Amino acid sequence: MSVDANIDICEVGEKKPRPADDELGFGTIFTDHMFVMEYDEDTGWHDHRIIPYGPLSFEPSSAFFHYGQTAFEGLKAYSADDGRTLLFRPWENARRMNATGERLCIPPIDEELFVRAIEELVALDRDWVPSAPGTSLYIRPFILATERYLGLKPSSSYTFAIIMSPVGTYHGRGNDPTKIYVETEHVRSIAGGVGAAKAGGNYARCLKAEVRAARKGFHQVLWLDGQEKKYVEEVGTMNVFFRIDDVVVTPPLQGTIMPGVTRDSVLTLLEDWGVKAQERRLSLTEIADAHRAGSLQEAFGTGTAAVITPIGQLQWDDLTMEINDGRTGDITGRVHETITGIQSGKVVDRFGWTTEVPD
Ligand SMILES: *Cc1c(COP(=O)(O)O)cnc(C)c1O
């Protein structure tokens, strides 16, 4: 694909120094360029352009500063051994960004333009895609409501931008099993709320529980349903899977949890392998019973940032549940190897999940 005539490119005069692949953290360093466009009611989305990465400027009265009318996405570009640069299921992110927008009264973006903008931006900053195992270029599209008005209503103007950050492993500690604290006071989502939307404001509410759990020595919290605080929903900002009695169980998409692209990929792989999987409600009581009976075999979280995160221990009030002796389980390891293999071009992509970034 050639450079889209609609996307103006203004390149940086001098490129920034790039960090070595073994020095990468998560989301602290940004590439040379970003994509930006604006929306207003008269012209729709317009002024698509790629410009040097730098500050965006907004008046203090802009709606997003006050009411959190914002949406975001997260996906990655990977460097394959044969030199190709691959994106993993970017069309799913385009669709989900519009689903989030729909929930928050943000006008839709042309999905073709969303993917094209990412391809153009990655192609321009291609030398920022790291190539060491476990590294990738994290891509963050986001939308801000920019109308200068303090009354509460859907904004009449928006800014959409895409920034990119070369990243190492998300937790900075490789892929060792994590210790998880079951959060029984706060909830991240309720029926009718925004749990299925990547809405900026829905993440601040999670911080306090995460901080409390971290102080007690845990890596993440396990969120329960907002109504009865009985059923498993998500772990940190990941979807969650449990393997009990050779059946892999994950909570269903009923509006309170994120329809994760990684979650969907895991379910597709399990079906392909003939591993029995169920999307159904799963209570902490059932998990504790399975643990007592010795049939809780493994558990893991899924999400773009860390791909697959094994869970080695669950703390539910006074009950400590060790899972698989704190080691990574068989299915956990296999989905991790397969998905990261497909993402980096090492495993044949039989599902058509990857798309190559054109020159
Ligand atoms: C983004 C996100 C996920 C993971 O979705 P992926 O598409 O797999 O990256 C899961 N839970 C929450 C709350 C999220 O924000």
Secondary-structure map:
Elements: E1 8-9, E2 33-40, E3 44-52, H1 63-67, E4 70-72, E5 75-79, E6 85-88, H2 90-103, H3 111-124, E7 136-145, E8 157-167, E9 178-182, H4 201-204, H5 207-215, E10 220-224, E11 232-235, E12 238-244, E13 247-250, H6 261-273, E14 277-279, H7 284-293, E15 296-303, E16 307-316, E17 319-322, H8 330-343, E18 354-356
Parallel strand pairs: 1-3, 9-10, 9-16, 13-14
Antiparallel strand pairs: 2-3, 2-8, 4-7, 5-6, 5-7, 6-18, 7-8, 10-11, 11-12, 12-13, 12-15, 15-16, 16-17
The protein binds pyridoxal-5'-phosphate (PLP).
Question: What would your notes on this structure say?
Answer:
With 359 residues, the chain is an alpha+beta fold. It has two domains: 8-168, Aminotransferase class 4, branched-chain amino acid transferase, N-terminal domain (D-amino Acid Aminotransferase, Chain A, domain 1, 2-Layer Sandwich); 178-343, Alpha-Beta Barrel (D-amino Acid Aminotransferase, Chain A, domain 2), CATH 3.20.10. It has eight helices and 18 strands. It has helices at residues 63-67, 90-103, 111-124, 201-204, 207-215, 261-273, 284-293, 330-343; strands spanning 8-9, 33-40, 44-52, 70-72, 75-79, 85-88, 136-145, 157-167, 178-182, 220-224, 232-235, 238-244, 247-250, 277-279, 296-303, 307-316, 319-322, 354-356. Strands 1, 2, 3, 4, 5, 6, 7, 8 and 18 form a nine-stranded mixed sheet that branches. It has a six-stranded mixed β-barrel with strand order 9-10-11-12-15-16, surrounded by four helices. Strand 12 (238-244) and strand 13 form a beta hairpin. Helix 2 packs across helix 3 (111-124). Bound molecules: pyridoxal-5'-phosphate.
